[in-house]
């Protein structure tokens, strides 16, 4: 775990250097994300499905064609090209670059506080470290995240193109198509309270809607794969409860309202579908991801914002450690620890997986 702690400290110091502009002409924010990219791109056997991707690219998978046919077009082509050039790590370098570059661009352009948004991205269990495990979906998610610029500027065609590309990485991105219309959705406090509470009692209703509106995706619910991230869901439900007190603080701010809307829609999806395995949180990600931008907005509203920022730094670090600790509790294998670098590793040895 030490290398992760060191990683977090280095990123934090780079962010602080960027905030105070310690060296004129040096973009420390960019350096922070370059360091994050390197950490992600050169990992080996870090992430729950790393071994699966590695074996596919190496041609060692028992059901190679069947596995590849499960992948959406761009993800499949990236695997095939990595295999063709005989450079297995290429898949992880490209996916890491896409995720980190787009995340950096969005936070740089949209966030009210670059440091806070980056710490939320790093610290919260469903973002940065999760990108190690759900690689294909996170590539799609990063494109959806980037599409915010087209949502806020009301460029429907560009937005649809972005969603179209995201779907070619992971088909679940199709659920994000509603984001364009959520932007102009004006809800009152009572609506958010109903959505928040309704998430606890709407499992069968949401299953019914998926069955009739998106039947192709029903298999993700019926398979009931994985767990619904109960500890993480509880964390976000607690956050959702406190944010209820701030939903009407910027009534005329469309961007702020969009972040609020997406957060509660995502929380509703996650809460409702949690009984059906990890399909709930995976679907919710396309909405919850905007919490990365919402957090600084909420902090700005609070009078003791300076103190709250300091607390956020500490809590962010604790969440980061909490994420790693959660990984050690995985009944199959720890997806993150130990961290290994691909060019310093025996590539015949992978973490054992408990059936």
Automatic annotation (TrEMBL):
Membrane-spanning ranges: 27-46, 90-107, 114-136, 156-183, 190-210, 230-247, 254-273, 279-299, 311-328
InterPro entries: EpsG-like
Entry annotated with the keyword Endoplasmic reticulum: no
UniProt KW Cell division keyword: no
Domain of life: Bacteria
Keyword tags: Membrane, Transferase, Transmembrane, Transmembrane helix
Single GO MF descriptor: transferase activity
Protein name, per record: EpsG-like putative glucosyltransferase
Annotated organism of origin: Mariniflexile fucanivorans
């Amino acid at each position: 775990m030490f290398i992760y702690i060191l990683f977090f400290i280095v990123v934090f110091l780079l962010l602080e250097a960027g905030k105070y502009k310690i060296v004129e002409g040096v973009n420390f924010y960019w350096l922070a994300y370059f360091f994050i990219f390197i950490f992600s791109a050169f990992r080996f056997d870090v992430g729950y499905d790393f071994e699966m991707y590695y074996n596919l690219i190496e041609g060692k998978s028992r059901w190679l064609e069947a596995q590849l046919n499960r992948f959406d077009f761009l993800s499949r082509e990236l695997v095939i090209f990595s295999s063709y050039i005989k450079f297995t790590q290429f898949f992880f370098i490209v996916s890491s670059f896409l995720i980190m570059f787009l995340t950096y661009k969005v936070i740089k352009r949209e966030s009210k506080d670059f440091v806070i948004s980056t710490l939320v991205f790093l610290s919260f269990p469903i973002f940065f470290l999760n990108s190690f495990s759900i690689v294909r979906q996170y590539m799609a998610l990063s494109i959806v995240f980037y599409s915010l610029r087209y949502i806020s500027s009301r460029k429907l065609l560009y937005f649809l193109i972005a969603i179209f590309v995201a779907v070619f990485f992971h088909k679940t991105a199709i659920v994000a198509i509603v984001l364009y219309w959520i932007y102009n959705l004006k809800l009152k406090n009572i609506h958010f309270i109903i959505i928040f509470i309704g998430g606890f009692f709407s499992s069968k209703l949401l299953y019914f809607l998926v069955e009739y509106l998106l039947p192709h995706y029903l298999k993700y619910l019926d398979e009931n794969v994985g767990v619904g991230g109960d500890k993480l869901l509880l964390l976000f439900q607690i956050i959702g409860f406190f944010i209820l007190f701030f939903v009407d603080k910027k009534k005329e701010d469309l961007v702020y309202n969009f972040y609020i809307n997406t957060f509660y829609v995502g929380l509703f999806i996650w809460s409702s579908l949690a009984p059906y395995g990890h399909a709930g949180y995976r679907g919710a990600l396309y909405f919850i991801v905007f919490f990365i931008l919402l957090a600084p907005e909420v902090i700005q509203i609070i009078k003791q914002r300076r103190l709250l920022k300091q607390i956020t730094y500490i809590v962010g670090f604790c969440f980061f450690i909490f994420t790693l600790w959660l990984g050690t509790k995985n009944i199959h294998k720890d997806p993150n620890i130990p961290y290994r670098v691909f060019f310093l590793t025996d590539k015949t040895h992978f973490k054992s997986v408990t059936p």
